What we know:
48% of the residues lie in helices and 14% in strands.
Amino acid sequence: MKESDFKILVADDHQLFRKGMESTLKTIKTVKQVFQAENGLEVINFLNNEMVDVIFMDIKMPVQDGIATTKMVTKHYPDIKVIAVSMFDDRDNILEMFKAGACGYLLKNTNKEELSDAITEVMNGGKYYSKEVSDVLLQKMINLNLHKSKALLEPLTEREKEVLCLICEQLSTKEIAERIFLSDKTIEGHRLKLLQKTQSRNMAGLVMFAIEHRIYQPGQS
Length: 221
């Protein structure tokens, strides 16, 4: 796939927001086409005829909301990356979006640079968390106690804890490798081992695990 081949779908029930997102996305060099849908049902119907690379998914939509739609997309179209787009007061629902399979979130006051960064990161297999609300949402996970603590299958090594904390700081595999002087392949091995040991399904699960077990605390760096 060429750098400029990414197809994007914006799913939101507010027409002005969709149009604004489309206008901004079209100025990003990695974006080839932008499509729109006003609810989750339209998203699924659209995907029956046209594939995209990234969906910017609103959470609260009529007919079918973003949480239910994300579950369907990640189940039937696992190669599509879903990034939740929310208002700040949707912080509780965003946790449900992560469980549904979203690989990132942005606030609705996002800008071109952040949109571009988010697309690049998720298309490279990473996660993207809005810089403005990361710590707030992570703290919310603790306060709500939404997830039961899991027993480790085997203890984490000090190196694994170090890698886990850097994952929580949103560093990419390459950045972690450079930080602690290891190869990208070794870091990917640590990521896999962490997923296995913590019984987590994805990177968001690892972050929640790290917070629940006090391995990482938001704002500690």
